[in-house]
Amino acid sequence: MKKRIFPVLLVSVLASLAWLVWFWPVKTAEDDKKPEALVPVQVGKIVRATLRSYVTAYGVVEPEPGAGARLAVGVPGVVTGVNCVEGQYVEKGAVLFELDGRAAEVAVQFAQKTVERQRKLVLTEGTSQKLLQDAEQQLATASAQQGLLQIRAPFSGTVTRVNVKSGEAADLTTVLAEMIDLDRLVVSLNVPSAEAAALKVGQAVEVSTTDSTNQSSTSLSFVGAQLDLKTGASLARAKLAPHAGLRPGQFVQARVVTEERKDRLVVPLASVARDSTGASFIAVVEGEKAVLKPIKVGLRDGGWVEIEGEGVEADKPVVTEGAYGLITTQQFATKIRVVGE
Fold first, then answer.
1. Residues 254 and 276 both lie in one domain
2. Cα dihedral angle (332, 338, 339, 341), rounded to 10 degrees?
């Protein structure tokens, strides 16, 4: 019985092996091929925009020439009247300070009487015309001296400092007060010599402070022709609009627009990559692949950069984050997986 079972088992095993050899699926070259890796990327778009180049400089807010003044006396004397306080707005010609005028009043009255006497004598031919003219000249001088005892506002503006009190003596070197026309402020900028040549009167300026996001738009009103020998910088001024919200003495940053390029093709700066030779590329998304396009890079403005090249058109999607990974593969087109925009 055992002898009969063994041949049956042997035949069964051989039959099974033959079936496996005959029906087992044969591997092809496609089966051995590894699946293509998908490069994860983020994308943006090629757009048309206006780009600008800037010169950035720093400076302070101050009155424009002629819009600030230090008030002093024309003749020495004792201050008898202070008609202003710090922060007060005053009109042009307003009397801000008065000096003791008793002596001047006496001189004017004496000169007036002298003139009146000389005029009466002229009618009776008791004096000469020259003596009358001399008397009138003395009266004019005395009146002018009396006028110097009142210190008036040279323009309409704000009193920023008062330095004397009533009863104090003042000589020709005493600064009684300081005043500014706050509607006539400028930003005085120190521009590095390497960038000063690009500045021209009339160029647009954006003024901002370090503690605020507000910007004031203005233009250059003055560009100095000489450099400061100590700092190597050139002076430039930009006139501020009235009520611009800036105060004298405030430190500011200014961006001067030195060039403007309209309707240019631009891409996010992150989408531009360079290969080992220094050539610039972008990766344009076409279907499921990113195709490398050589480009020429132009003006940069913030996070955008001007480009031009064959096959570069507005509204085409481009790879931003991940562009360098595509270039290092040295492939013309790479399959990608978009993970964000």
1. no
2. 100
Domain count, the chain: 3
Q: Which DSSP category does 310 fall into?
A: T
Instruction: Give the residue from 260, 275, 296 where a domain finishes.
Output: 260
Q: Domain for residue 106, yes or no?
A: yes
DSSP class per residue in 14-50: HHHHHHHHHHSPPP-HHHHSPPPPPEEEEEEE-EEEE
Asked whether 176 and 170 are in contact (CB, 8 A), the reply is: yes
Q: Which helix (H) or strand (E) holds 268?
A: strand 251-268
Residue 174 structure tokens: 């005493």
266-301: string of b/e by CB count within 10 Å (b at 16+)? bbbebbbbeeeeeebbbbbbeeebbbbbebebebeb
Return d(Cα 9, Cα 232) in angstroms, integer: 104
pLDDT by residue for the chain (341 residues), tens digit each?
445 555 555 556 555 655 555 555 555 555 455 555 577 778 888 999 999 999 999 999 999 988 999 999 988 999 999 999 999 999 999 999 999 988 878 888 888 888 888 888 877 776 678 887 888 888 888 788 888 889 999 999 999 999 999 999 999 999 999 999 999 999 999 998 888 889 999 999 999 987 777 788 999 999 998 887 778 889 999 999 988 888 899 999 999 999 999 999 999 988 888 877 888 888 888 888 888 888 999 999 988 999 998 888 899 988 887 666 676 665 566 666 666 56
Alpha carbon 11 to its chain centroid, in Å, reads 95
2 is a domain residue: no
- CA–CA gap between residue 34 and residue 251 (Å, rounded): 63
Q: State the residue range of the domain holding 229.
A: 54-65+182-260
Query: Is there a single domain that holds both residue 128 and residue 167?
Result: yes
Amino acid identity of 194? A
Let me know whether 84 and 174 are in one domain.
yes
Q: Are residues 199 and 173 in the same domain?
A: no
Helices 129-147, 102-123: inter-axial angle, 10-degree rounding: 160
Kindly state whether residues 173 and 159 are assigned to the same domain. yes
Q: Which of 180, 209, 235 is the last residue in one of the domains? A: 180
Asked whether residue 89 falls in the same domain as residue 175, the answer is yes
